[in-house]
Amino acid sequence: MIQVFAFYLFATLCIFSGAVTILARNPVHSVLWLILAFFNAAGLMVLVGAEFIAMLLVIVYVGAVAVLFLFVVMMLDIDFAELRAGFIKNFPLGIALAVVLFVELFVGLVVHGAGGVELGVASGMATQAADMSNIQAIGALLYTRYLFLFEAAGIILLVAMIGAIVLTHRERSGTRGQKVSKQNARRPEDATINMQPESGKGVVL
Amino acid sequence: MTSFFQGLGLSYEMAWGVATVCGILLIAFPLMLGVAMIIYADRKIWAAMALRKGPNVVGPLGLLQSFADGLKVFLQETIIPSAANKGLFLIAPIITFTVALMAWAVIPFNSGAILADINVGLLYVLAISSLGVYGVVIAGWSSNSKYPFFSAMRASAQMISYEVSIGFILICVVLWAGSFNLNDIVQAQKGHVFGIVNGFVANPLLFPMWVMFLISGMAETARAPFDLTEAESELVAGYQTEYSSMAFALYWLGEYANVLLMCALNAVLFWGGYLPPLDIPVLYLVPGFVWLLLKILFFFFIFSWVKATVPRYRYDQLMRLGWKIFLPTSLLFVVLVSGWLMLTRFGV
pTM above the 0.90 mark? Predict the structure, then answer.
């Protein structure tokens, strides 16, 4: 009863916020609705017992990706009239994409209804022990069977990260950066002198 | 608690609902009271270190000062700037306040006294604390004003930076405890060093992690000396500049609830949570939540002490500390801790 109620709450909110994401006039509002959709999707994940994926969804997408996204959208100087001008031009393309996505989803559901494809059962790895938590099950699979794929993914991400830094980094001359080691090495006696001038005399620096 | 309400003749679902609501209220009300008192304590400690008296007029020793302040802001008019994005402007403080309360759901107050005893407790804490930045960012943007916007950008960069190193620090703790469940983490600290000290902090490999966690916690909650987001000498009052009355009070309460949460996490992850400091039977006569409360208060004193004594960081120093010092060090310790555990616990 509570589960059914929670499911319909999350599902309705998820679809609603997804719809508002594309309908909202203001891009910042769109991003915020998108975040709400992520959040409700995480709720649905918890309901099916995939609490690890749900937490990762919130940490990675809501906590990091969407923040940067929001950041960029907020800093943009948005011209609403220009945004709406492209609507008619891109409308057919958008409809075509939507139709393709819908057909794929439909085919998938129909095939699943007709028996579906049993993925991963052949090797016997997809059945997990009942007393294992999500994290243990994923870890046991990821660090044994998929170890090389996991490491390859790690290396690809590392290369992407270094590549992004190399591409955007440029040495600029004439800037005055902070040299922290120099600042830390500075002592009070280097910068200050203690003088007791006679009254009316003043100090020569 | 569910079984207690079932015993009163309620169906399971009703009993579960009532028990959950009771649990939430049991945490939220003492927490709000605690926040009110901790604001008073913060001002008193700060005053004592500056050789002032601090609040001493309302009630005995000024104990009711926070409630008087609360009443004052409650009765004030809420001012909404005409250029602000009204809906988001009002939602932002509510987000901050709600998120500050949500994370308390997984804190164990005693063995078994925990609202949501979930497997991924620590990940939940991370997820919720990463939501905290939205209250600030939305406030900065919807105020439609320069300084709040600068502050919002600072806040988001700061919180994201320190979350990275906090994540690695937590990984070390999780590796050692072998669980993401906060109750299991506390239990794993029982008699951790020489079978007598309760707490990961006495472990030489985890002690540096605790120091970094304490400092990162200050940065994450934007407490002094890392309160760049509300640096009054540069940004007026930061993202709170345009806020008044209850909306402002919600930020205030949320901020202190977050600070208390950081203190509680320090206690739970490194100092044995509800366990007494030493694994001696006599000490277990004191109830667990008293130990937890004492530890939280101790850490809050450290937070106040730092606030009163350390000057504010410059923004580039803050970023350098987060990315160039904490991140590599915590990464190194993840390797060290996992290597050590592989060697001693699992065999090579």
Answer: no
